[in-house]
Each structure stands twice: as structure tokens, then as C-alpha cells.
Amino acid sequence: MNSVIKGASYVLVHTPEMVVYNGTTQTTERVVNPESEYLKELRGHLRSYEDCVNYWPNQVYIGNAHPDELAQVEFPYFDKKKEGAERYGKYGEIMPEEEFLLLVQACDMFEVVKLDKNFVSAHKDAFAADPIITEDIVSKIEEGYELDEIKHFIENEHAEGLYHNNELVGCVRTAHDIDVNLSAHVMHENLMSKASSVLALLYAVRNAGINKEDVEYVIDCAEEACGDMNQRGGGNFAKAAAEVAGLVSATGSDSRGFCAGPTHALIEAAALVKSGAYKTVVVTAGGCTAKLGMNGKDHVKKGLPILEDCLGGFAVVISENDGVNPEINLDVLGRHTVGTGSAPQAVIGSLVTDPLDRVGWKVTDIDKFSPEMQNPDITKPAGAGDVPLANYKMIGALAVKRGDIDRKELPDFIQKHGLTGWAPTQGHIPSGVPYIGVAREDILAGNIKKAMIIGKGSLFLGRMTNLFDGVSFVIQANEGNDAAGTVSEEEVKGLIAKAMKEFAETLMAE
Amino acid sequence: MAILEGKKVIIIGDRDGVPGPAIAECVKTAGGEIVFSSTECFV
Questions:
Q1: A461-480 residues touching B, CB cutoff 8 A
Q2: pTM
Q3: Which InterPro entries match (chain A) (predicted)?
């Protein structure tokens, strides 16, 4: 019996100071061109927290607007304000940087995060007032340290600074004297990923309406690696985040595949639940500091704000079939294999049309496709085009080639079966998964019946292979069969035993 | 396609457009010499 999507969460963290200090476009520029105009102008292009909250794509991401509403907003989006925008949405929230730094300290188990005393006392109440933040997490907040101590760690012990409003408010220390895998830089990156994953987990459990104890397995599918010099990517972000989120019954592991990671992880989670190995599995991912301001040079050059100023996070709860929630159909899996090749037609064929052929469906049988859902407000000014649209054009072209639609119907196909991108360019975060929360609700409401989630990954960036990667799966309306309505193996054995006993009694009576 | 015959070619492919290896196949067919091929990811 297929597993179901019980709920999903989507969170953002506004981190303008990490754009400046931790985004690789900026850190690289400081090394190769420290006096550049870009670095001088950068700070003037950072958005305020309010502007970040009022931004249409961000409100769609946390669930305060439907992607169809975004499609009606005149492009570009950066100069439009979403009326009625709020910090909290039905899927999650947009957390401000100052509160997030407290969450990061609460997620630190090795005392490497040191926050300034005054900073802690100024923001602790606001942090504790966030309804999703538990008392247990608040209790982990330390009183803080003198600023001179923090400066000492940065100047003499290679610590990474933590900033708020362009002022030093803390640091992340190294976790080892010589191991680069535990350097302050790596610890900073990993703790930010972990903390944003924790936030996503907390919302996912709430949104699915389950108890924390119900979660039996967590899969982290972000793009960071934690470990030491003897096991660089040993892990395990999943269990580390589950610990802070209070998922006491869960074990877990990390699954990686660049941007395709989340889709791989969701297929694995669906298979784990369908097999009966675990009843409830959560797939989670935190955000990536390195990608903050990735396309910043183009944005500044064109007079735009730095739009890549948020860490993203998401989590999806996969459970046993309850007869209500949308199912993950494991019979319709797309897979880019070693032998598929890299031509765009071959890639989309392997991910979209090949799996449909296996079950005899047309391209038009899928109501909505969710490939790479990057926000075009970010990518178009940087010359990368409208990524979702490019994917829809290729899917539509294949539909025409197969005879599923007429060539004249192509523009309508893109509008009807496509979506306008709203996700931040955080690598794995925009890859297929941003639509799952919306798809679940649209299927439950009867607006659509089937959606295809497509994840693609740039494996060649790891310099281990020139290959590309991708997988896909279909979410469909529940067929109304729940696990409780079927007979278990134990029950069958019991029924047979009872029948045998009655038969034996009959024989003895004779 | 004759414009590539005997020419040295540098290829920068796009993950969400046409990737390097796919362009490389076309260049080879057209008689070009590939001196560098890479696929970039902008997202």
C-alpha cells in the first residue's frame, strides 16, 4: 500500500549579514579583488527584514499565497509588495537573523557558538515568543560572553564572526586545532544547516498533526557534509537535528545527491514506509550559507536588491496510508541512469515520459509538474533565464513529439501544467519539493489529481563524474484504502489457526 | 556547421540549458577540436 504525504513545512531565515560574510561569491571576491566596487556597494543593496517578509515569492514559500496568485503578479517581483504579508505562514515562517542566531546556539552541542551577553539579553524574549520554539530549546540558551572574549577568539583562534546590523555579536569557534573538517568555517556552515533543519522539523510535525514521538526515521537531504578528518562526510545531520527538535523515537541518516537529494530522499522515505520498516519518516533539509548572494554581482550591477538573502528549509512527513492524504506512487519513478546521456531531450525523457510510458499515461495525465522551482526574479537578471519555464518548454515539446498535445496547444500546456517559480536559489531547496505542500492541499481540495515532482542534480560539481543526475515521482489523490482497512499477516495466521482448530474439533467429535 | 571545422572550441554548458557533453558531441560531429568543456550550475 502506498505511503502518504501527511504534511509539509517550509521555512526561511533572513540572513543579510551571512550574505556579506559567508556567501562564497562575496568571500571569493574578498580574496581575489578586495577593493572591488561590488564589495563597496554590496551593503547598500541588502534588504531589510520587512522587505524580505513583504516579498511575494517568500510569502508563497511559507504558505501565505498560492503559486497561482504569484503568476498573476506583474514581473519583476522585487519592486512589488505583498499586501498583508506576515512573518508566519501555514507552512512555516521567515525568522529574523537575530533570533536565528539564538536557535543556532541552542543547536550547538560542543560549545563552539559564543554570543555576546547584551545581544542575548536583547533578543531572548523575542526568540522565546516564537510559538514553534519549545521551552526545551529556550532553556539551552546561554547567558552569553563578553564581547572582548569573542574578539579574542576571532583574532587569535580562527573563529568565524557572527553579526547583526553590521556589528559583531558572537562567533563560531573551531572544533579542533588542526582538522580542517572541524574548522570554524565548516562548523559555521553545518550549524546553520542544522538549525534551519530543526526549524523545518518543528513546523513539519505541527503541520502534519502528529506527535513528536510518532516520527521513527529522519532523512536529511541537504548539501553539506559533517564529519572529521577520518570520515569527512560521516554525518549525521538527520539525527542531530531530530535531537534538538525533540523527536525522541527517531533514528535517521543523511542522503546526498546535490539538488536531486530531496527527491531521492522522498522516494527512499516512501519506500521505507511502504515496506513497513518505519511507520512515519520525515525528510528534512536546512539551508546553505555558501549560496547566499550567489548571483549578487549581477543584482548589484542592475540596481536590484540582493535577493538571495535567505536560508531555506523544508521538511515533509511521510506516513502509512490513512485513506485520506495524497499517496506517493512508487510505480511511476523517473530515473536518469548512467547510460541516459546528457542531451536535454534524453534527460527530460528519462525523468518524465519514460515513467509515464511504463504505466501507459500521457503527459497530460499529470496535472502539475514541479521541476526546478527557482524564483525567476533571481535568475533572470543573472542571465540564467526562467528555469521552471525552460523545463516546461522541454516537457511540452516532448508531449508534442509523442502526440499527447498539438503543437498549437504548447503555450496553454505550459500555463495549465506549469507553475511560476518562487523558491530561493538554495540548491536542493528549490528542486521539485517546494510544491509538495501546495500539491497536497490542491489534491485534497480536488483541484488536481496528480503532480510530478522532479529533482535534478549537478553531480559534476563534485569532480567525481561528469554525469548529471535526476529522479522523479508522482503524488496522486488517495484511492481511499487505509492501512487499518486491510488484514495483517498476523490476523491471517490467526484466522487460519482458528479454522484448523475448528476443523480438528469437528474430526475429533466424529 | 562548417564554421567549426578545424577550429579550437571552448564549451561552457548550462545545467538547465544544454550541458557541456551534449554540445561537445555536436562540435565533434562538426569537425571542431574541443580544448575545454565544462557544465556550470547557476542555481
A1: 461, 466, 468
A2: 0.93
A3: ACP_syn_III_N, DUF5940, Thiolase-like
